[in-house]
Amino acid sequence: NDYEIIYGQTDRDMLELVDRVLPLLERGERLSVLSDDYWPLPFYCHGQYVGYPADATQIPPEDKLVLIKPDQEASLGERCRGWNRGIYDVRPNVPVILLVHPELER
Question: The whole model's pTM is what?
Answer without folding.
Answer: 0.88
